[in-house]
Design goal:
alpha/beta, Multidrug-efflux Transporter Regulator, Chain: A, Domain 2, Rossmann fold, 3 domains, seven-stranded mixed beta sheet, two-stranded antiparallel ribbon, 30% helix
């Protein structure tokens, strides 16, 4: 079958090397699954689309901001709303916002400008009494701040104030008892404190009265032109029997080239002269190892002699692949996001496109604040796919062609 080929078989059919197939998988361009004998198995049609896209073929997947024409009566409280990535995606799926909570001033201005109809509370979640919404809400969703659990952060977790915001998320659930609760965080939470941090969270939700499961979603297979992994925690109230659903990954990805067609011009950061001269030497998809040795040492400084791959340094994106995960600033030395062919950081609107915000979604504040708001957001299209799964859960009508059931832990 076309979806059960070994790496050697799919490589032979495509007239490429087996190492090429392995490289595509490692780069997040193609998926595999394990056979009973632990062999990697690939889908030929998916691999063929990757080859066409990487070799200038017409394998376009029609980049667009996903939006359902049908609204539901299911309502939602959105916590840690930020610039509205998840919230807009959930609305696009058909959910109705009952309340949105956010503390950051600029993010609140962004929400008020773009969605004045949303009931937005600009306040610290610790100050909010959620009891008035008891038994009146279908869903609570919250991407509790993730820096405490990130590989790039200090990894302090519950030892840091931001880490304890999970318990405020849990308090909001306990005070309202929605049918479903959804938490979102970075993949690094899986291994934080050898898994004990996540285990503590799951047990807390169990204590409140919920069946809980989780899944890492890879955005590049869910209509987002970006390699961005997010851990999604799904909790269903114990008195409800419907399954825990998450979106099923597609068999294609969307490239930066497709996403940036017709992107509006906008402001963006600039490189200093010497940095621009150095990045001019990096080819599309390349990074610091593509520089001459003497310039590697000049640009890297002491980092050159440290361990680790340092693959984000002097990194230029590739038009034919999804973007690397966008950070809160496009020109940080450790996580460079240089435009594929122009030697400059991605602009604000390019950032927004890659995060699947619509062009009319305006961001308030300084340029650095705009980058931060966009970089911190969950991609809108990922929010849409999560929203469609939540609606199917609440209707108890799973669509197993686009969704998958996960087991409670």
């Amino acid at each position: 079958m076309n979806n059960n080929l070994t790496v050697t078989e799919v490589a032979k059919k495509l007239s490429v090397s087996a190492d090429t197939i392995r490289r595509w998988e490692k780069s997040g361009l193609i998926k595999s699954r394990r056979s009973e004998n632990n062999y990697r198995l690939f889908n030929y049609n998916e691999a063929e689309r990757v080859k066409k896209k990487l070799h200038g073929g017409s394998s376009s997947n029609g980049f667009k901001i996903l939006k359902s024409t049908k609204k539901t009566n299911f309502n939602i409280i959105e916590l840690f709303t930020g610039a509205g990535g998840t919230a807009l995606g959930l609305e696009n799926a058909g959910l109705v916002h009952e309340l949105a909570v956010e503390l950051d001033k600029n993010a609140c201005e962004t929400i008020r400008y773009n969605r004045p109809r949303w009931n937005l509370l600009e306040d610290d979640i610790r100050n909010i009494d959620f009891k008035p919404w008891k038994d009146k809400v279908d869903i609570i969703e919250g991407g509790f701040p993730c820096q405490s659990f990130s590989y790039a952060g200090k990894g302090m977790g519950f030892g840091e104030t931001r880490g304890t915001l999970f318990f405020e998320f849990a308090r909001a659930i306990q005070e309202t008892m929605p049918k479903v609760a959804v938490g979102e965080n970075v993949k690094g939470l899986l291994k934080h404190d050898q898994g004990r941090t996540l285990d503590t969270m799951l047990k807390k939700l169990n204590e409140i009265g919920y069946r809980v499961g989780y899944k890492v979603l890879r955005s590049q297979y869910l209509d987002v032109p970006q390699k961005r992994e997010r851990l999604i925690i799904i909790a269903v109230r114990n008195d409800l029997s419907f399954p825990l659903l998450v979106p099923k990954e597609k068999d294609y990805y969307i490239s930066i080239r497709e996403a940036l067609i017709g992107v509006p011009k906008s402001d963006g950061q600039k490189y200093p002269k010497r940095k621009s001269e150095i990045l001019n030497l990096v080819p599309p998809g390349g990074y610091w190892k593509d520089l001459p040795l003497d310039i590697q040492k000049e640009y890297m400084g002491r980092s050159y002699y440290l361990g680790g791959g340092k693959t984000g340094m002097a990194r230029r994106l590739s038009f034919d692949e999804p973007s690397l995960t966008l950070t809160c600033a496009p020109a940080q030395k450790q996580t460079e996001r240089c435009h594929p062919i122009e030697t400059r950081p991605l602009t604000v609107r390019e950032y927004a496109r890659i995060q699947t915000f619509p062009d009319e979604w305006d961001f308030s504040g300084s340029m650095s604040s705009k980058y931060r708001q966009i970089g911190n957001a969950v991609p809108v299209n990922l929010g849409y796919h999560i929203g469609k799964s939540l609606i199917a859960m609440l209707k108890n009508s799973p669509d197993l062609s686009t969704m998958e059931i996960i087991k409670p832990v």
